[in-house]
Amino acid sequence: MPKITPPSEPASLCAQRITAVRVAPLHGESPQGGWRHEIEPDDSIHALVAVHTDAGVSGFGSAFTSGALVQGAVDVLAPLLIGENALEVERVSEKLNQHTFWLGRGGTLTHAISAIDIALWDILGKATGLSVGRLIGGRHRDRVRPYCSLLMDAPERMEGHVAPQYEQGYRAFKIGWGPFGRRDDRRLDEAIIRATRTAIGDDARLFVDAGASDAYWPNGLKWALNTAHMLADYDVGWFEEPLKPDAIDDYVTLRQASPVPVAGGEVLTRRQSYTPWLVRGALDIVQPDVTKVGGISEQRRIAWMAAEFGVRYVGHGWNTALGLAADLQLASAIPDCDLVEYICGSAYVDRLAQQPFALDADGLLPIPDVPGLGVAPDPGLLARYTPDAGRFFSA
Q: Any idea where the Mandelate racemase/muconate lactonizing enzyme C-terminal domain is (predicted)?
């Protein structure tokens, strides 16, 4: 038999060894979250991560946790990363997961691994000349509808919050947290919803987030059941985090009785923690956060697993421009994902990337089809939110 010579590997696909991992904590314009113990603008609740290789290719990711914690996690993870082949994304990410079971599985280390995983997919896309969406499954869509994510306020102020975003072209909104469910006043809760629905009209989609992962959430199953019936009267598309995040039995009961789809899962990490929620039928819509759950590698596995149980996937996206970029690529590759979360008014989304996001004439977000994530932090803009931004971009 003639000898078959395998084709030579393109130079761009030869091993790209990781030489450095840098962290950029974001602070100065941190958006309010509606939490009981509200964050301040200088608090760091998001951090960017850069992974650099010996081929001169860099990838960028985002973690939803304190920059100080991410830096500590990267210090722990660096010995497992330096010298690794950045193009073997899922193997390298799984290596980090496997070697950290005893050091903080599911917490800060998993959040940091999320950012690293996103950055590795960015590198692989740049090395292959493909968008991340094409690498993880192909492009089912070229654009997707963003829902404008806003905090709740007093009823008389809700129109002023949502109307300007409606005028900009948004036709889907999620309102959450704030006073909703926290004042023992059902009339106030309903007045907030009524004011919002009146402001956006009947043609816009509306979702409601109770935010029951807040500290000392005061309500239980009966409140959630009564509230779900009220929300149905206003054509609410889903009821998010209506119960404490560990109350899986109550979620099962609520999902069976609620006239409104029940959504949740943003505080869970790694695919294994989602299994009992799917097996027991606790959610209609699963909402992992790519900057917390373990990155793109974990997020798409959860989306695929959810599909087998007939559960919709809509990623939670209360993070940064790089988190949104990852969500967009996932939205292109997951067959039934028709929405992405967009924090309206956040500097870390609107004033961080080299190319700002913009709605098209139909109120949709185009999904970049360029190598990698298609979004990168702007050095000049990043310098406003983190010290020593120059080092972040240096290998």
A: 155-261
Active site residue 316: yes
Kindly state the average pLDDT of the residues 336-350. 96
Query: Residue 344: what pLDDT?
Result: 95
One DSSP character per residue, 207-252 reads EEE--TTSTT----HHHHHHHHHHHHTTTEEEEES-S-TT-HHHHH
Per domain, the residue ranges of the chain are 11-131+379-392, 134-366
**Which among 27, 46, 111, 316 is annotated as catalytic?**
316
CATH domain 11-131+379-392 topology: Enolase-like; domain 1 (3.30.390)
pTM: 0.95
Q: What are the two backbone dihedrals, phi and then psi, of residue 85, each rounded to the nearest 5 degrees? A: -85, 110
pLDDT digits over 123-166, tens only? 999 999 999 999 999 999 999 999 999 999 999 999 999 999 99
DSSP-assigned letters across all residues of 22-87: EEEEE-SSPPP---SS---TT---EEEEEEEETTS-EEEEEESS-HHHHHHHHHHHHHHHTTSBTT
The domain made up of 134-366 has a fold known as: TIM Barrel (3.20.20)
Q: Per-residue pLDDT for 10 more than 90?
A: no
Name residues whose C-beta falls within 8 Å of residue 342's C-beta, 6 or more positions apart in sequence.
Answer: 146, 147, 148, 149, 170, 317, 324, 349, 357, 365
